Amino acid sequence: MAPTSGFNGQVNRLPDSPEAYGAMITRAKAAPGQSRPTDLMCKRTRVRFNGRWARVTSLQLHAAMTNRGTMVDFLSDALPYISQAATLVIAAAAVLFSHRASKEVGQRELTTKMWEKRTDTYTEILRATQDLDPTRRPTPEGFATQSDDAPPEGVQLLARDLESEEWKEFTARVDSFASDEARYLFYLWLATLSGWSWLIMKCVIHYGRDPVKYNEANGELQRTYKATHSVCVELTAQIRAELAFKQRNVRKVSVKGPDKYFGAVTDVEFTRGKQTDLEPIHSSRLSTLRRSAETS
After folding, report:
1. 255 backbone dihedrals φ, ψ, rounded to 5°
2. Is residue 278 a contact partner of residue 181, using CB atoms and an 8 Å limit?
């Protein structure tokens, strides 16, 4: 009679060792008469994770390791897609940064060109205030003498022709590149020159004919010299502040002028406060003085 044994011809393979995943396992021996497969399926194993002991069966351990392998496979399959998505995000960020950088460079170049043109315009303004300084022009008596011997085209009141194409181009640059504050003061200064021209003409008309009216017109003329100078000082201070990148506001202004001569200013007073209305004053101008005090 053949001997009997517990081997039935089948081999039950144990699952992968859980110790490879950081577990400490303590397994009890099989009881007498109990097969090893039955022990693995029914006996609970003590597993230590993170300092704690827990009792699990071999089937539970096998399921946990199977899930872990599934997660690893999922991450392995998803990794190329994650890499592609990250590459697209980095490329989009690089394009956005490049576009913004190029836009900033363009704005800086435009600002630099505008600032250069403004600087040149301010230099021309300061040069004009020197050339057209009324104190460098003849007195009423001098103009009256010159008008007697003047040519048919008359005597030029100012040192520069304010009706020339060159002057019109210059004022166009002032309108284009000067700040609102500098532009306002520039045209206010031109308005005081108009007032000065108007009063010079009055003085020449009354010179040697009506001493009372002449003295009255000459008194107004002296105030115009003061007004022109004060506006010129304010304009120069404004330009110097802007060229030094300093914030400056125009002081509050009150002006007076002849009623019948549009836009001319004969008296200017700057007071404390801020000038809010910066709309330029456009005034009429006398350009020449002819015989018998005829003007054009």
Report:
1. -125, 155
2. yes
